[in-house]
Amino acid sequence: MISNNENPKGQKCGFVSVIGLTNAGKSTMINSLVGSKVSIVSRKVQTTRTRILGMAAYDKTQIILIDTPGIFNPRKTLEKAMVTAALSSLEDADYIIHMVDAAMRDPIEKNKMIFKSLENQENVILVFNKVDLVSKPDLLALTQKLNDKFPYMATFMISALSGKGVEDISKYLASILPEQPWVYPEDQMSDMPMRLMAAEITREKVFHQIHQEIPYSVFIQTESWEDFDNGSVKISQLIYVEKESQKGIILGKGGVKIKAIGKAAREDLEDIMGQKVHLKIFVKVQENWAERAENYAMFGMDIPT
After folding, report:
1. Under 8 Å between Cβ of 22 and 184
2. Would you tell me how many other CB atoms lie within 10 Å of the CB of residue 178?
3. Any long-range contacts for 203-208 (C-beta under 8 Å, 24+ apart)?
4. Which among 64, 30, 305 is positioned nearest to 163, based on CA atoms?
5. How many CB atoms lie within 10 A of CB 49?
6. Structural domains of the chain, with CATH
7. Is the pLDDT of residue 243 over 90?
8. Predicted TM-score of the model (pTM)
9. Measured between alpha carbons, how far is 146 from 155 in angstroms, rounded to an integer?
10. Which whole-number Å values give the CA distances from 222 to 102, 167, 193, 199, 299, in the listed order?
11. Within 13 Å and on the Cβ side, how many CA atoms surround 67?
12. What confidence tens digit (pLDDT) does each residue in 209-235 have?
């Protein structure tokens, strides 16, 4: 226990890892808890690629949420790196949130890889998302089924998209996290450098605009960042694709797709940063980018052996 002399403000702080299957709503919930976008969101699965920290403040408590890639059976190098990043977050957490899509079929069978990774853990909280899509009797039966499968500390039912029930999670976490000074400044909401955040925002817009498998074949690099005296910023980015044909799809006929991606990304960045943003985006072909170690280093990831 931290003494009052060491923690004069009576603050509480701790790390909470959020794990679950792809598209369970982890990033949406974390953005809701933080009160700002710290992780990109898409209806497509496997959107989050690496661990991201989001800092949520509740009363005197700083809740440091670890957003992780969805857990699935990986095959490709990038997929293996994503799952490794997710599972390694369990080692750093004071508590773990296991998020489950309440509307999915066969949740125990589909979550069996996660149950295995949680073996011997005693600090796990169950959160059912998308409960507005399920009847109350079915929710009660599902709650019983999963709590029989694993000894959760507590169970919460939320709609991450609407924010319903999310504050109950904040209140609960604030009650159980240890007494200690905050790790991050009060006004900091993420540990992600703004260059990487800008790249992630653009990648989110690629997911929204391109309704094919192309988004999984891109990575985005913020190449330059220039601040001006008038308070605006000029950002130059490269979208890397694996094939020349993919470049054409990203650009769109007459450049219509890349213009839409750039406009949406710029508007989001201006809202997050509170300043005028000039965004220039270029598309470049780099074959087999997912096998290059230097590309993983940008996201703080290692190529798994």
Report:
1. no
2. 11
3. 203/40, 204/40, 204/41, 204/42, 204/47, 204/265, 204/268, 205/260, 205/261, 205/262, 205/264, 205/265, 205/268, 206/239, 206/250, 206/261, 207/40, 207/42, 207/44, 207/47, 208/42, 208/264
4. 30
5. 20
6. 12-176 (3.40.50.300), 194-297 (3.30.300.20)
7. no
8. 0.68
9. 10
10. 37, 34, 11, 6, 12
11. 32
12. 886 655 566 788 889 999 999 999 999
- Token pair of 33, please? 């808890």
User: What gap in Å lies between CA 291 and CA 51, rounded to an integer?
Assistant: 19
Is the pLDDT assigned to residue 50 strictly greater than 80? Answer: no
* Residue 26 one-letter amino acid: K
Q: Is 75 helix (H, G, I), strand (E, B) or coil?
A: coil
Contact 181, 24 (CB under 8 A): no
Under a CB-based contact definition with an 8 Å cutoff, are residues 115 and 149 in contact? yes
Q: C-alpha angle with apex 146: 143 to 151, nearest 5 degrees?
A: 110
